[in-house]
Amino acid sequence: GGRHTGSETYIAPLYVYNSNGNSDENGNGFLFKDEEKKDNFTREFRKFLKNSYLKNHTPEQILGYIYAILFSNTYREKYFEFLKIDFPKIPFTDDEKLFNKLSKLGTELIENHLLNRTFDRNEMPVFAVEGNNKVSDIKFEEKTKRLYINKTQYFDNFTKEVWEFEIGGYQVFDKYLKSRKDLELSYEEINHIKKVSAAISKTIELQKSIDKLCYNWV
Predict the structure, then answer these.
(1) Whole-model pTM?
(2) Quick count: other Cβ atoms within 10 Å of Cβ 162?
(3) How far apart are CA 218 and CA 70, in angstroms?
(4) Which of 7, 83, 113, 162 is most buried, judging by how many CB atoms fall within 10 Å of its CB?
């Protein structure tokens, strides 16, 4: 995971590998350690994990849970001001079944955001009109669910929710296409837009599922 503040980005890997030369604590106190790697959790967090049901879960499952919480809209609204000035504080549920559900949803979100999964054709928009693929007239039509890149070519089955989805205060596809104005989209770029659209559609669906589990306690 990473954190961006101003012009600096801080990266926090889930594991630290021995080849990095990091051998602090000589392995003492690590919950998750083998000869090649150990968890990158702080001592305080490890202590917290050891004293709860979480000691039975892998770092990947814990990361999935944290990721789910960070994508809960209820959590984001509640901690909005705080998130602008400090690292996020993650509430951990006492309910192990709830943890497992959120961890699973968060892990699915991660797979979507890394584009690590394949998407069925019916999950992706269609780009079927022949042309030069040049980005010139960007326009979204809500009624027909079409995202035009020029006067004749468009992505079909493109929903309003996906078109309006923002990351970092920018509409994802508006920004992407404007950065390619007057250029011809390659086959790879067209497929990338299709996959990202499907990933965002799934993200919206997963966020709703996460919020149903979070809204009354985070």
Answers:
(1) 0.83
(2) 24
(3) 11
(4) 162
